[in-house]
Design goal:
The protein is α+β, with helices and mostly antiparallel strands. About 25% of the residues lie in helices and about 30% in strands.
């Protein structure tokens, strides 16, 4: 069976694992998902991630982050641009999520970046998701 929206699947697997309070989650790997996991790690939303080579597509194992009361650090994951409705923005209209407490992940001509980094590099692109 083919998957029509792998980014939504990535976000949903993380959302479900957080809701079930799992320690980690395994996600089928792709270059886009690797870059998104790197951004989540750099922004402090996850503990760590590794790439597991299974001889096929590979897996990304993401260790989820919780606070002292065992509440997840990530409270909301929202898919913005979908295969049926692409959302593109220029540099002047890059979104600010939760007054810069959250992040927007944008795919640009310079790679997958946060909206803040895309603004710094003066590039627009497709808004993939919001995370806070």
């Amino acid at each position: 069976m083919s998957m029509t929206d792998p980014i939504a699947d990535f976000l949903t697997r993380i959302r479900n694992a957080l809701h079930a309070q799992h320690k980690y989650v395994d996600i089928p790997a792709s270059n886009m998902k690797r870059k998104m996991a790197r951004i989540l790690l750099e922004q402090g939303f996850i503990k760590k991630y590794i790439i597991i080579d299974d001889g096929k597509q590979g897996l990304i194992r993401i260790w989820l982050k919780y606070d002292e009361e065992n509440n997840p650090v990530i409270t909301h994951l929202e898919r913005v641009s979908t295969p049926g409705r692409r959302i593109y923005v220029d540099v002047d209209h890059l979104p600010r999520v939760m007054n810069n407490l959250g992040i927007a992940i944008v795919t640009t001509s310079k790679g997958v970046l946060t909206a803040r980094e895309a603004r710094r590099q003066k590039v627009g692109g497709e808004v993939l998701c919001y995370i806070w």
